[in-house]
């Protein structure tokens, strides 16, 4: 393998849907991928300054060994934020990939609700509990099945190391189900969390139910329309939040225009109801490389219109 790697097969061209193939022999493959994004951004918080940010600087490796024609065993790991002092390990898991029965991932990765959300945004986007929450952990088991028209997934997460919100005595479970028919993609998500961990403010004890419904329509040439509904309930405090969202994008040659709006309402007066919006344009400068500009905002108190420009590239 070392000789093959030294032969610099890394120089092979990669398409937008492929990583760089480092090795492929005797049923074993090693692929490398990554992304980088640098931007200048003025946030929506009042009196924010226009400043540079390195949003992504990630590198990943995907290793797979074919057991037979139906099953492969793999390992995946990534390094996040390599260009910053806060750089840390990203996903790291083993996987079992089958041609007919789906994929199982075990390790550090995201759960199903991480796939929820609408809108082709770069900087601001639509805000909801689902969009704002990190649905990932170090102790995850995830299953995915995609049969073309129908797709389905399950995930469970523990925190026996007691390092996250879930906590040693907590647990988390979620699933998604979707169906593609004609020009529609319809999906539903549901999650249940027993949080017994801690955050920066101290110990956390909460029981959450999270749901999402989404629909995407792509029946008009170059145009995509998306709608979403998201709801989160906390049973111990008897509170909930719900968000309605709409987004659209239109592609014209190498330019993609997008925008979206959302409305979030809380059941308690201590939380501020708000509406969020964004509009942007991105230009495909080269394969897998986009330069963009975006404007966004909300109607919260102490908030201003935000804006930014940036460039992102992936392989």
Automatic annotation (TrEMBL):
Gene3D superfamilies: Porin (2.40.160.10). Residues 7-299 form the Porin domain. The keyword Magnesium does not apply. It is a multi-pass membrane protein. One of its GO terms (cellular component) is cell outer membrane. It is found in: Cell outer membrane. Residues 1-19 form the signal peptide. InterPro entries: Gram-neg_bact_OMP, Gram_neg_porin_domain, Porin_dom_sf. GO terms for molecular function: porin activity. Keywords: Membrane, Signal. SUPFAM superfamilies: Porins. It comes from the Bacteria. PANTHER family: OUTER MEMBRANE PORIN F-RELATED, PROTEIN YDDL-RELATED. This is Membrane protein.
């Amino acid at each position: 393998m070392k000789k093959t790697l030294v032969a610099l097969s890394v120089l092979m061209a990669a398409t937008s849907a492929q990583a760089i193939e480092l090795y492929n022999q005797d049923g074993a493959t090693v692929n490398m991928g990554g992304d980088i994004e640098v931007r200048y951004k003025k946030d929506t918080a009042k009196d924010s300054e226009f400043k540079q940010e390195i949003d992504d600087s990630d590198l990943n490796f995907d290793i797979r060994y074919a057991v037979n024609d139906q099953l492969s065993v793999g390992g995946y790991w990534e390094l996040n934020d390599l260009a910053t002092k806060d750089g840390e390990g990203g996903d790291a898991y083993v996987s079992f990939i089958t041609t007919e029965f789906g994929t199982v991932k075990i390790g550090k990765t995201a759960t199903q609700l991480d796939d929820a959300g609408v809108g082709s945004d770069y900087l601001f986007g639509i805000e909801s509990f689902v969009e704002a929450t990190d649905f990932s952990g170090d102790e995850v088991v995830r299953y995915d099945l995609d049969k073309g028209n129908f797709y389905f997934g399950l995930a469970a997460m523990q925190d026996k190391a007691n390092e996250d919100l879930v906590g040693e005595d907590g647990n988390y479970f979620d699933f998604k189900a979707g169906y593609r028919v004609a020009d529609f993609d319809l999906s539903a998500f549901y999650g249940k969390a027993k949080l017994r961990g801690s955050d920066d403010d101290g110990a956390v004890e909460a029981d959450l139910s999270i749901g999402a419904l989404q629909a995407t329509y792509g029946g008009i040439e170059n145009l995509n329309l998306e709608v979403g509904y998201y709801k989160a309930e906390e049973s111990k405090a008897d509170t909930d939040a719900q968000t309605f969202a709409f987004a659209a994008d239109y592609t014209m040659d190498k330019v993609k225009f997008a925008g979206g709006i959302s409305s979030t309402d809380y059941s308690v007066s201590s939380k501020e109801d708000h509406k969020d919006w964004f509009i942007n344009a991105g230009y495909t400068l080269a394969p897998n490389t986009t330069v963009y500009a975006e404007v966004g905002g909300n109607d919260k108190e102490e908030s201003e219109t935000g804006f930014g420009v940036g460039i992102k590239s992936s392989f």
